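Teaching soon. Got one?

===
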Amino acid sequence: MSANPIDLSVYLVIGPQDCGSRSPLDIVGEAVQGGASVVQLRDKSGSTRQQIELAHALLNLTRPAGVPLIINDRLDVALAVDADGLHVGQEDMEAAQARALLGPKKLLGLSVSSQEQLDEAPMGMLDYLGIGACYATGSKDNAVALGLDGFAKLTEQSTLPVVGIGGISIERARDVIAKGGQGVAVISAICAAPSPLQATRAMAEKVRKL
């Protein structure tokens, strides 16, 4: 487990597939300026080389602002660019193995969507959990919505900070925080907004008021 604390309040998940005709770099630049506290690169289409190049470019935006850059799934990309951490799902590399390869100083998050997965999570090796889906979402075809009550039930058992994931809009963000989340992970709420800067500011205001 990393000794570095992590501010999960506004956790932007982004990849080229989420940006339409816009550049991920432009969106992340605005989001960081607007108050994003974490950026996760979740690139489902780029080659390894393309992902490494994009991650390097994102680090040039996030690191001067003190915002961690987390890489989804791709440990090789995270190590290649010296990213701030890695996030794994239930079908990715096991968290314990990822921690062994990542080392003790990097951030490591794990997605959890059931009681069984929570019970099996190696809490001592992790820095945070992503619990959801809080709502139905189109970003993952196999995501089953827990609903807020299901999210709250799992979150209250966690010994680690929790970021809510799945279908979270600006309007829903405060409800997720009220149910125990330390932050909200969002894609389209920022990536598809006419102004990612304004959307991030609005999300940060909703989350940090509580």
User: Anything to note?
Assistant: The chain has one domain: 10-208. The longest helix spans residues 48-62.
